[in-house]
Amino acid sequence: MLHSISGTMTHHAYGKTNFEREKASGAGSLDQDYSVGIDPASGVFFNSDYRRHEDLKEMLDSNKDNLKLEAMKRIIGMIAKGRDASSLFPAVVKNVVSKNIELKKLVYSYLERYAEEKEDLALLSISTFQRALKEPNQLIRAGALRVLSGIRVSMIAPIVMIAIRDAAADMSPYVRKTAAHAIPKLYSLDNDTKPELIVIIEKLLADRTVLVIGSAVMAFTKVCPERVDLIHKVYLKLCALLGDVDEWGQVIIVNMLTRYARTQFTDPCKNDKDNGDRAFYDSESEASDKENTPTLDPDHRLLLRSARPLLQSRNAAVVMAVAQMYHHIGPKSETIAAVKALVRLLRSNPEVQELVLKTILTMTVTRKGAFDVYLKSFFVRTSDSTRIKLLKLNILTNIANESNISIILRELETYISSYDDDFVAATIQAIGRCACFITAVTDTCLSGLVTLLSNKNEVVVAESVVVIKRLLQTQAANPKEIIQQMIRLLDSIDVAQARASIIWLLGEHCRDIPTASNVLKRAAKSFSNEEDIVKLQVLNLAVKLYISDKEQYDLLCQYIFNLSKYDQNYDIRDRARLLRNFIDNPSNKLAASAAKIFLSCKPAPTYRTSEESDLYQLGSLSHSINSKANGYEPLPPWPEVAPPNVREVEPAQVVSTQSEAKLEKIFHSWETESSSELSEEAEGSGESDESSESDNKSSSSDEHTSSSSDSSSGDEDDEDEEEEEEEEDSSLETEEGDNVILTEPEAEKLFDNVPQKKTEKSNLDLLLDLEMNDQNFGGGPILTPSLGGFLSPVTSVTNNVQAIQVVPSVDIPIKTSEVLNRINGKGLSISYRFTRNPHLFSPSMVNLNLVFTNSTSEEISDIRVGEKTLSPGMSVHEFACITSLNPNSSLPGTLGIDFNDSLHPANLQIISSLGSSNICLKPDVGELLRPVTMSEEYFLKEQIKLKGMNEHVGIVSCKETNLKQKIYQAANLGLCPSHDNDLRFAGQTLTSSSLVLVSATRKDVEVTITVNCEKLVLGSMLLNTLKSVLQ
Prior knowledge:
By secondary structure, this protein is an alpha+beta fold. It has 45 helices and 16 strands. Helices cover 51% and strands 10% of the residues.
């Protein structure tokens, strides 16, 4: 629309419109008429409103829709540029009855903007708006409701209420969303409508469309935030749909659920151990989660898990909302999840940076260790504004500890040479804070600050004096030498605050400084020319010296007090009048207690800034300005005892032990059927693949051969499918003759239990083991045309086979991941897991076990793979087509993917009777390997070959005793001959059979991990995975 507006404005500027040409061809010209009737003495030539928008008014009064449409585009363009177009309201409002849909949209957009300013004229069109609420076009209905609710006249509140009630039941979700936005407007116009509005809000909260949910929650927070009983009914739905709502709705829902959690759950930080020092990428295994995860209410845990994926949102407001939720209602050990997301936002524009830094500054007060890893992200850049620089300095001093203080001090030292005086002063203050908090560097900081006293920049000198004064108050070092050096610089310092600080320090330690009398004499000589703050400290110094030696300083003190008696500033006169009582009357009570009053130890100053307070909710306006803003509601306190759970929970489907045994039999029969199908397909395609066996790794040849085999054996497949359906029906019959329906919870439980049960190997499994031991699956085919057939020498290959032996996988993953949920799949959901077994079609393929679940009430048929989007070198062997999937049941499938030793995802299209859906299968780096073993001598020999850039080393702190199991879980590796504290593992990449050597050496709690691999990226990613698992 803006493009058409700009084009219209350009056309109007450089060419005449049809209206102008018709006007120019008329009998008389309006310009000529006006030019004759103007009196120059009236001054209308200097009036900016003279014939203002006259051409637009005439175009709006025309009978041609194209002229009206062009005029409205120009008017909307004026509004977009911030120009006032309210004078055109009478001419625009007349066109609200137009039959042109495009024109009516623009008129409604104009009326939404100026309906509040021109209430009387807008009231004349209420009947038109009411008729528009029945229009078949949803945009017209929504626009009419938006304009009607924007008229701020209390007498039409009943009309607006009826319109909102009807719109809340509209078939269009866009109209229902508009009704939710109109509710707060009506409530602010008439508070008596609250009971009726609550009923409408409850109805909108139960809406199943994600387009409406965010607006409904917004209306809830504006009208009735105290009615938490309305959220009880939809709590689970809000958590489930949180990722599907628009970004604006996500912010609203997260903030509302944060307040809801503060009233319905107990504080999780009471018994939570702070694991802020833990790295961000931590092990996600069930064992570590049980150790580090505090006990939370299941609904509380559900909220945190539902919001966690939003930390990867591209919208900064969404990330900030989730981060503040983790800070306010999450355990301290889980706040680490929001840390990296906040650091990522520091790459945004300066406005976002400032808000994020304020949030991080508040979080560092209680969670310092969480930001240690990202220390360099808070280093100041020359392009940063002064405000951002100061925030980063405060964060650096907050996260400083004995391990990183040397890095921070070196960084702060470079900031002192900056041209920004405010930033330099703040840097010196930051050095003082570090010296105060960390006693190990106090002497170093003090010596550095003392050297700054000879700096040419007086701002540096003045701030150094002030900071040294604060440090000496903490009794961190012997002040005598430092004060004497500062006294020597007193005459060269002109900044009043610095001079006052030196004199104050001298007064505090006047008994130990022999040159104090000389300083007082020089101060008395220049007393009349000093600043007020310096005069006050001179008076204090005089009294302190008088108390220590009355005879020596009596006359000097009298002279200074006489000067103060006639000073222009009344503060100086009042201070002199007060302190004279300690000198003139030695017998009074004040003089007797003078030493206790003036020479006592003063408390050390606090270094906590007001911006670090946790008084306000993070991300709110009050937190940004560090002051309570109008309309701010503080977070409710945690309840001591959690209220009873009244949230609606779906009843869990319990599977009996008999049904579990039957399901295991069903699953075993499905596996054998699917493996037999794959073997038949492999045999059927073997004849057609002999000619292209050398190009077996290319995806194009795979697709060609699979399609040719499918076409050649179509009739046989139909017969096989009929037989398989009969076998499946018979296998689903129980001993009592009943049919077993495999529901989604049963399928999930099936995945968890079946792999753990040890079963006897079939003939096919024994044959696979024999092939693995004989051919090594990675030594490369011996019979190839390029090697000369049967008579080609195979010495190197046989040597590798003898030295490297393939072993079965030790750890079989049982964790499933959902790749297609039932919402995006229109009722069909798909989950998968890595089996770590070789695929029958090709040993270079990763074997994935898929489970298809039908969540609908109708049968799903013809489930198969459609288009494939793969990176070069990747190939896919499709699963067997599923002809029929009964309602509320599940069926497995086997999929083979050759990732070509890369981490590029495989994007597949799943086609069924419901339509098509896209899935993305991402490989884990540990699943791209096959386990092998070798002798210790051969291991060390190959490890020496893979040095330099092919070697990746990392050190982690690990208290885990069973390192083998952790490494087996992370990567599909085999164990080589090892020692107690020196473990060796080996593997080969599936496609290129490149060696991957892993060694783990333990020394106390530190574990050194070394990964040697020809593929640099794969080796680096494997090292990161092992480090995250062991930490």
